[in-house]
Amino acid sequence: MFAIALQQKQYKTYTLSDLGFNSSINVVPERGGIITSWCINNQELLYCDSKRLENPELIVRGGIPILFPICGNLPNNIYEYNGNSYSLQQHGFARELPWEVIEKSTQDRASITLVLTSNRFTKTVYPFDFQLTFTYQIKGNSIEIFQVYTNLSNTQRMPFSTGLHPYFFAPNKHQLHFDIPSMQYVEPKTGIVHYNNGKFDLNQDEVNAIFEKLTGLATTVYDRSRGLKILLSYTSSYSTMAFWTVKNEEFYCLEPWTATPNSLNTGSRLIDLEPGSSCEMLVRLTATFL
């Protein structure tokens, strides 16, 4: 049995549940269309800083933010297009804007569909007409995030990259092991390349790693302290995986991206939608308690 409940907290919060499996997710459309919670048998799998969520002046740290139309940073937050300069902050604007709920369903699974459409503000920083449609679905121990990106222009191509930024709850990060399908990763600040052995030096104040040219369509995390395995799978548009964490914080982030930072300037692995066309992507998260 599936259910969708709506609570009016500071923001409208939709809870999608698989009652038979005792699993649920919370979705807050007004705060960037974000998933803020994922529970199985009353065990929370995501990290979310509630104080930042409740403060509209702050970017949310936690849940599963949506990254669009860039992933990562641009040099000086600037990109060039058709001889003009535009400014975009880290990870773009989709995670900061309110999304609109257009559909809900409890048939065969609990699902909710949200849209974000270009507007006067977005066109000042990203001069393209677009519509993003995200459908969140929960069934059993899995979440599916089905995405449609549409270029609404009849004449202009639309370049972009996109990604997700899941924050996973981990009270003991030293008990984590990562199976990421890439031979090596790079530290974006230093350019140093490291061999991938499934571990990171978590004694650093911050760990930031980018895995380029993924060789498989799934990443697995084993959390021995919780007896938990999380499988993150994705369609082939996702060519890059970013890892990020901060010392003494109970989270780590594994972020499927379609391109590396600065792709709007370099063109590297940039998606370039033809006028009037759409593309589809899927990310699935599955949790198993071992």
Automatic annotation (TrEMBL):
GO molecular function annotations of the record: carbohydrate binding; isomerase activity
Pfam families per UniProt: Aldose_epim
Gene Ontology terms describing biological process: carbohydrate metabolic process
SUPFAM superfamilies found in the cross-reference section: Galactose mutarotase-like (SSF74650)
Species per Swiss-Prot/TrEMBL record: Okeania hirsuta
Protein name: Aldose epimerase
